């Protein structure tokens, strides 16, 4: 198509020019751009619909990455990492469907499957409009699916590093209603977040979900940082308030990572080297923390902020996610097996349905779309340049012409080769109490309200209809526990 080249790895490159007087990049013409739906630290997100006959009208979210102030594009390493992200396929991880590079300015556009809701909006709607907590079934189903997707990412050596409610999407009506999709995974590394506290445009990056080891300057960290974030999100789903809401403004006495730590200590108490032996080796422990180490907080722990019956296993799971020592923090695989998921209400696939028969369905607002904003009008895009003399010889040629801005070692280089096929690491929803091993015997997850017998019949029917369809949900493999 025109000046765009679709490479053999699925990257579309183009000059940004087109064969008509529109200034839209050529590749964009495969979409109907509907408008802007959001803006994050690193980019703008647009809603578009595909024009191709096979998938006509399918909603796609296109994320345009902002140019950095020094005009750098995205480095070749970053592009390679992103290409590897296309291999990620899991029901609870948003699908990256296309990667587009605009040659004129080396800007990058990622096209994802579109999800109608995100946890930020769901929580906000409950707090401001419904005036009521989220029902226990919904909380549990959202959390279970989040852990399921995260377990898959961690099993493939991908650490998200920037989990927060706005990155946890939920599908609206359609083929997968109420299904959770983790977004923005693997991208934090490309822009070297979350170690930065300010984004390129000076916007403060939210650090409310950031693990204490990161706040204390750890250079080496593990997937445990994501589990801390999940703990914060779990508490927020239960209370509708951010758990550790550090200051967003910086002052000389109280840089925001210190304030964030202070908020954590206020609820969980101070960490100690007895409980967290490597604490004293973290860069900021001695220097920066002196003036808050002296403070003594009387704390009742999580009970002071999360009000549930005392014996609720939610406390146990939550406190294991918010363990100070990352080595002792619960893993996603372990969390999926926690008692909380075995007691009623059991988690299910459609998270956004009522807990009890007769309970009102919550109608979440759909995403507002700003139809007046398009790619060009919102960014530092340079006017499109004609292609240079050299044709793009396919594949990553465009990427290599870009800036050599260093980004860390490709995160995926090792892990992706070991990537599991879809669902290999996928746990089944816990079955009704009493089923063998407490785990569905394989196949589709049990739907809410379905008896074990009906579920078994559904499995058999599906197997007869489409044997391949069952492959995403193998029986749980105990040996794969982390
Ligand atoms: N695939 C998608 N489908 C629908 N909405 C999406 C999709 N991906 C992102 N969004 C929405 O677009 C908005 C901006 O997302 P983005 O990831 O750029 O920023 P953020 O998560 O708010 O902040 P940050 O960039 O700091 O992570 C959010 O409301 C997010 O829920």
From TrEMBL:
InterPro entries the record matches: CDK, Kinase-like_dom_sf, Prot_kinase_dom, Protein_kinase_ATP_BS, Ser/Thr_kinase_AS
A GO molecular-function descriptor: cyclin-dependent protein serine/threonine kinase activity
**What EC number(s) would the UniProt record show?**
2.7.11.22, 2.7.11.23
Q: Which UniProt keywords apply?
A: ATP-binding, Kinase, Nucleotide-binding, Phosphoprotein, Serine/threonine-protein kinase, Transferase
Biased composition range(s): Low complexity: 1-21, 452-461
Q: Please report a single Pfam family linked to this protein.
A: Pkinase
A GO cellular-component term linked to this record: mediator complex
**Listed PANTHER family:** CELL DIVISION PROTEIN KINASE (PTHR24056), CYCLIN-DEPENDENT KINASE 8-RELATED (PTHR24056:SF495)
What is the name of the protein in this document?
Answer: Cyclin-dependent kinase E-1
Tell me which species this is from.
Dipteronia sinensis
């Amino acid at each position: 198509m025109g000046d765009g080249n679709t490479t053999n790895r699925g990257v579309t490159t183009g000059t940004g020019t087109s064969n008509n007087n529109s200034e839209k990049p050529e590749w964009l013409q495969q979409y109907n751009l509907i408008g802007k739906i959001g803006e994050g630290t690193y980019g703008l997100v647009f809603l578009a619909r595909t024009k191709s006959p096979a998938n006509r009208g399918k909603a796609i979210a296109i994320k345009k990455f902002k140019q950095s102030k020094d005009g750098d594009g995205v480095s070749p390493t970053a592009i390679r990492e992103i290409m590897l992200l296309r291999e990620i396929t899991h029901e609870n991880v948003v699908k990256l469907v296309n990667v587009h590079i605009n040659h004129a300015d080396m800007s990058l556009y990622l096209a994802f499957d579109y999800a109608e809701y995100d946890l930020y909006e769901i929580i906000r709607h409950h707090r401001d409009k419904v005036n009521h907590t989220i029902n226990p079934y919904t909380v549990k189903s959202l959390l279970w699916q989040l852990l399921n997707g995260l377990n898959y990412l961690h099993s493939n050596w991908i650490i998200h590093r920037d989990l927060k409610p706005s990155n946890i999407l939920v599908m609206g009506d359609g083929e997968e209603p109420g299904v959770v999709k983790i977004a923005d995974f693997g991208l934090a590394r490309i822009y070297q977040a979350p170690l930065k506290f300010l984004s390129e445009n000076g916007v403060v990056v939210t650090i409310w979900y950031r693990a204490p080891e990161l706040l204390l300057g750890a250079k080496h960290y593990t997937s445990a940082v994501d589990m801390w974030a999940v703990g914060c999100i779990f508490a927020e789903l239960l209370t509708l308030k951010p758990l550790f809401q550090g200051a967003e403004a910086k002052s000389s006495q109280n840089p925001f990572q210190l304030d964030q730590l202070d908020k954590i200590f206020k609820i969980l108490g101070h960490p100690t080297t007895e409980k967290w032996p490597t604490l004293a080796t973290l860069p900021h422990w001695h220097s920066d923390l002196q003036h808050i180490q002296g403070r003594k907080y009387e704390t009742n722990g999580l009970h002071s902020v999360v009000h549930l019956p005392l014996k609720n296993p939610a406390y146990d799971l939550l406190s294991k996610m918010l363990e100070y020592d990352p080595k002792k923090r619960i893993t996603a695989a372990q969390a999926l097996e926690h008692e909380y998921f075995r007691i009623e209400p059991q988690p299910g696939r459609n998270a956004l349905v009522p807990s009890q028969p007769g309970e009102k369905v919550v109608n979440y607002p759909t995403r507002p779309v700003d139809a007046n904003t398009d790619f060009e009008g919102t960014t530092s895009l340079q006017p499109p340049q004609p292609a240079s003399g050299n044709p793009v010889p396919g594949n990553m040629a465009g990427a290599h012409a870009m800036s050599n801005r260093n980004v860390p070692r490709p995160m995926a280089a090792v892990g992706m080769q070991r990537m599991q096929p879809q669902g290999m690491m996928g746990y089944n929803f816990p079955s009704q109490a009493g089923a063998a091993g407490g785990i569905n015997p394989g196949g589709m997850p049990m739907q809410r309200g379905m008896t074990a017998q009906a579920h078994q019949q559904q499995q058999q029917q599906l197997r007869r209809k489409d044997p391949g369809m069952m492959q995403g949900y193998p029986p749980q493999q105990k040996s794969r526990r982390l």
